[in-house]
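Quick one, tokens below. Sequence please?
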């Protein structure tokens, strides 16, 4: 399955753009990869923020009760 692509206009630092062109980088692909990385990071940040209370409660439970099912866990060396 191929993604639908759409043209857009970007304003970029001139020196950065010149260096990318000199190096023969595919600007569209590089911008897409950078945007994807930024989206993933922001999704992770938001998820962590939205679930901070539950994570804190779970961590407190682990502190109090220990890790569940340690007797049946398999450790891979």
């Amino acid at each position: 399955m191929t993604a639908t692509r759409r043209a857009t206009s970007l304003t970029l630092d001139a020196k950065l753009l010149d260096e990318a062109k000199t190096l023969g980088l595919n600007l569209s692909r590089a911008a897409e990869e950078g945007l994807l990385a930024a989206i993933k990071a922001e999704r992770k940040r938001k998820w962590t923020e939205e679930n901070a209370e539950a994570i804190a409660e779970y961590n407190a439970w682990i502190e109090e009760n220990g890790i569940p099912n340690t007797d049946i866990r398999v450790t891979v060396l």
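The chain has a mean pLDDT of 93. The CA atoms of residues 32 and 47 lie 22 Å apart.
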